């Protein structure tokens, strides 16, 4: 049951990055790829109906960690307290920008919220990626499973590289999603950008897979998820160049899922590695809640998880159409 809930928690984190990955990518890209405010609105509107539902996966991932592994949750949140506060502020700025950017007809107001969405969309995958990398790399944790470091101890090279890799994959997912959801000049521009971002993402993922293997085993031993991540991101680069839009987005999402799953696969059976001593590692066994609590949670998850997945699938079906910037209306003299 303990191992099952480690897999479930990992599934929620993977789901969050797959669903929010393209949301973050669109949020980062909309400031740069659109040539006017209308195109920016079109880009933002592609994720308008679904972004808040996707963001719920972050709450569920945190709640599942708290309920299934309370020791992991307490130590992790103590270590990442300041980083989590920055993430919360970034999420707030990003979420509010959807509604507030059009409330006042002032260019400075719109510009401020435009950059709020852009920076917020970049900071969240970057900082969460750093945190996930730190779990595997190791943090100073003592025998009482208390974090003994500072904020600066979180900024290890592997963690930073993991965060940048997830940002690169978010950009790829966002670009391929915009190709699917737009038409006209914006679509053509995004298709060219998707091809460019796929090359950068492929290089980042290749480096991430090698470095993760070295960090996890002190010698490169790839796992199946790492292999899938490399093949998927290379496939996304290939099909994006061949203008196979649906496959490009699907493979970009698969690369994101496999990359996040790689971290959890290499982490097991630990949930947090102690850089102080391996004896102080927090494991699936010593961090888990009681068997009764895990059993009740399993029943609840079996009932409600399919309902949530069905609802989200239906919402994507409803809002599946492409969006286009409206054409300018030219008035003809003499007509009322």
Reconstruct the topology from this structure.
Layout: H1 2-33, H2 37-45, H3 51-68, H4 70-79, H5 81-100, H6 107-137, H7 157-181, H8 184-217, H9 224-241, H10 245-267, E1 270-272, E2 282-283, H11 284-287, H12 291-318
Antiparallel strand pairs: 1-2
Helix pairs in contact: 1-2, 1-3, 1-6, 1-7, 1-10, 3-4, 3-12, 5-6, 6-7, 6-10, 7-8, 7-10, 8-9, 8-10, 9-10
Give a concise summary.
The protein is mainly alpha-helical and 336 residues long. 75% of the residues lie in helices and 1% in strands. It has a two-stranded antiparallel sheet with strand order 1-2.
Write up this protein.
- The protein has 12 helices and 2 strands.
- Strands 1-2 form a two-stranded antiparallel ribbon.
- 75% of the residues lie in helices and 1% in strands.
- The chain has a single domain, classed as Up-down Bundle (Formate dehydrogenase/DMSO reductase fold), CATH 1.20.1630.
- With 336 residues, the protein is mainly α.
Keywords:
336 residues; mainly alpha; Formate dehydrogenase/DMSO reductase fold; two-stranded antiparallel sheet; 12 helices; 2 strands; 1% strand; disordered C terminus
